[in-house]
Design goal:
Elements: H1 2-17, E1 24-36, E2 45-59, E3 61-65, E4 72-74, E5 84-94, E6 98-107, E7 112-117, E8 121-127, E9 130-140, E10 147-151, E11 157-163, E12 167-174, E13 176-178, E14 183-190, E15 197-198, E16 202-214, E17 219-229, H2 232-250
Antiparallel strand pairs: 1-2, 1-7, 3-5, 4-5, 5-6, 6-17, 7-16, 8-16, 9-14, 9-15, 9-17, 10-13, 10-16, 11-12, 11-16
Helix pairs in contact: 1-2
């Protein structure tokens, strides 16, 4: 029993030192930007809409969305009709942590750069956590002249998963091209095709973002998820500690 108690004491210290999950609390913000050059001009114009909410009590899961049938138009002087219309936008947040981001957008009369940024999830630091990121996009031609969604990230790609504010971890979904009156689908996953891979760093925040140029009059939609968990050794240690605590209680 003395040996078990000694091991239990050591594990207890290690468990306390391991990152403990923290709930979702505070202000979270989903940002949509559209960047376009008005007809006859040379300087681009940027419009931005921030959707934010305050969580006053800690939550393990949280969902937010525009709601069924709710849209948001970006308008500008000198342009007839919307520059772009956000027809769907939703986020799913998990304290584990994970972030899922979904959207649907239609460009107006000019080619438009669309930038959609998920909320940033912060959490107690995880050392060398395991993770995966997955993203899909669907492009639809609405005006019988073909459509293109050109990614603005490295690759070029349209989706980026980042950690610690600025470290790029995954670039997914290449440029899409749809035939007249047609559609195109792109997707990607890191690692591919299944499983998780280690982020060899100390991670304390994650975020997802889409960034692409959408041709005039056409539509794009997408979904993504960026999911991070402690490395297996940490999980095993926590499980071992819990098992020893249970043994001591039964004893």
């Amino acid at each position: 029993m003395r040996a078990v108690a000694t091991i239990l004491s050591m594990v207890g210290v290690l468990v306390l030192a391991a990152p403990a999950g923290a709930g979702l609390v505070g202000t979270y913000e989903c940002t949509v930007k559209v960047i376009f050059t008005p007809p006859g001009e040379t300087n681009p114009v940027e419009l931005e809409k921030k959707f934010d909410w305050e969580l006053t009590s800690s939550k393990l899961l949280f969902d937010w969305g525009l709601g069924d049938g709710v849209t948001h138009d970006f308008t500008a002087a000198g342009i007839t009709g919307p520059v772009a219309t956000i027809e769907g936008l939703s986020v799913h947040l998990e304290a584990d942590p994970a972030v899922s981001l979904s959207f649907a957008v239609t460009a107006g009369v000019v080619d438009t750069t669309v930038v959609i940024s998920s909320p940033v999830i912060t959490f107690p630091a995880l050392v060398n956590p395991d993770a995966y990121a997955t993203a899909t996009m669907t492009l639809t031609d609405n005006n019988s002249n073909g459509a293109t969604a050109t990614g603005q990230f490295a690759g070029p790609t349209s989706y980026e998963a980042t950690y610690n504010g600025s470290v790029n971890w995954a670039h997914l979904v290449g440029t899409l091209t749809a035939l007249p009156d047609g559609s195109a689908i792109g997707n990607g996953r890191q690692p591919s095709p299944t499983g998780r891979t280690a982020i060899n760093a100390t991670v304390s925040s994650i975020q997802s973002e889409y960034n692409f140029v959408l041709t005039a009059g056409d539509s794009a939609s997408g979904t993504s998820r960026f999911d991070v968990v402690p490395e297996p050794a940490t999980l095993a240690l926590l499980g071992f500690g819990a098992a020893l605590v249970a043994m001591r209680r039964r004893g």
